[in-house]
Write a structure and sequence with these properties.
Layout (H helix, E strand, L loop, with lengths): L5 E5 L2 E5 L6 E4 L7 E4 L2 H7 L9 E4 L13 H8 L5 E8 L5 E3 L20 H4 L19 H8 L4 E6 L5 H10 L6 E5 L2 H10 L5 E4 L3 H9 L7 E4 L7 H9 L4 E4 L3 H9 L3 H7 L4 E4 L2 H8 L18
Parallel strand pairs: 5-6, 5-13, 6-8, 8-9, 9-10, 10-11, 11-12, 12-13
Antiparallel strand pairs: 1-2, 1-4, 2-3, 6-7
């Protein structure tokens, strides 16, 4: 039987695990980026399979924008990975001529020096634009395509793909398959019918599905989607420990959306509150402050993980 290989790389160090083998450490000459490398769909299921010795992670909302680094830009993704391994959450929109690009808004004005609606302009126009950061500062960075992001992510990061409402699910699933990105690209759904449709289109892919209470656990199970294919997004408010434990009993990770109010609480009260979220059952923190949140939870990495599925090097 083929072994499953899951790799997490910290700056200057390489840690690999194959089934039946111990973790091996070797030196590498890399790009100076923390990396997560999941090489198969079975590896993805193992990576997201909850266990008591799991290692908490951050998910960089819209790629983790910072001053000088706009949202949904590949350069921004790499900026985050200089500081921490991360899941990269990105947004997919579609141009008038059906090219899938990374863009959150329907309009171009906030994040680029262009004008108009994404679905009313063609890709040739998109290619002429430059991205602006969240302070409105123009950068030299271009709007990436989904294909470029998938190509970039292989061997570097896990992705969660937020599909904008005008984009056909079929087209995104096809692009992920064409890029052979199934091991590292999970698709986001906000409703159970959407999750079921995505699962039917691409049953091998992981899905991020909104599950916020016991009733929604029941409704999710009625979809017939296996728990081995789901990462449970528990919303933008912290859930009780008992609810997180119920998700863990199903074998799934929880993603807590700390972006917005909870990120602001961390700014006001101190970044140590991120650690509290993890200690109360959040496995992944979806945040606009991935660098700060990762630093705050770095001390929670188990030192003697019996499963040793993956290892995050502490800079």
């Amino acid at each position: 039987m083929n072994s499953t290989r899951i790799v997490v790389v910290g700056i200057g160090l390489f840690f690999a695990l194959s089934c039946g083998q111990k973790v091996k450490e070797t030196q590498i000459n890399g790009s100076g980026l923390h990396r997560i490398d999941v090489e198969s769909t079975q590896g993805a299921r193992e990576f997201y399979s909850w266990s008591a010795d799991r290692i908490p992670l951050v998910s960089a909302h819209r790629g983790g924008a910072y001053p000088g680094f706009p949202e949904n830009a590949i350069e921004t993704f790499e900026h985050v990975l200089k500081y921490t391994p991360a899941i990269i959450e990105l947004d997919v929109a579609m141009t008038k001529d059906s090219v899938l690009i990374l863009m959150h808004d329907d309009d171009l004005e906030r994040t680029t020096n262009g004008q108009g609606k994404v679905d009313e302009v063609d890709f040739a126009y998109i290619q002429t634009l430059q991205l602006e950061d969240n302070d409105g500062k123009l950068t030299n960075f271009k709007v990436p395509t989904l294909a470029e992001a998938l190509d970039w992510a292989e061997g570097k990061a896990l992705l969660t793909v937020d599909i904008k409402r005008t984009v056909p699910f079929e087209k995104v699933a096809e692009e992920v398959k064409n890029a052979e990105a199934e091991p590292f690209a999970a698709l986001i759904s906000y409703t159970f019918p959407a999750a079921k449709k995505l699962h039917n289109l691409a049953p091998e892919l992981m899905l991020s599905v909104t599950i916020r209470n016991q009733e929604e656990i029941k409704r999710f199970e009625e979809t017939g989607i296996p728990w081995t294919r789901v990462i449970a997004f528990t919303g933008l408010a912290e859930r009780p420990l008992e609810f997180n434990q119920a998700i863990h009993e199903k074998g799934a990770f929880t993603i807590l959306g700390v972006l917005g109010n909870l990120d602001r609480q961390a700014i006001a009260r101190g970044d140590e509150i991120y650690a509290g979220f993890v200690q109360r059952g959040a496995d992944i923190l979806a945040t606009d402050r991935p660098i700060e949140a990762a630093q705050a939870i770095s001390g929670l990495v188990p030192g003697n993980s019996s499963k040793a599925k993956f290892f995050i090097h502490d800079n």
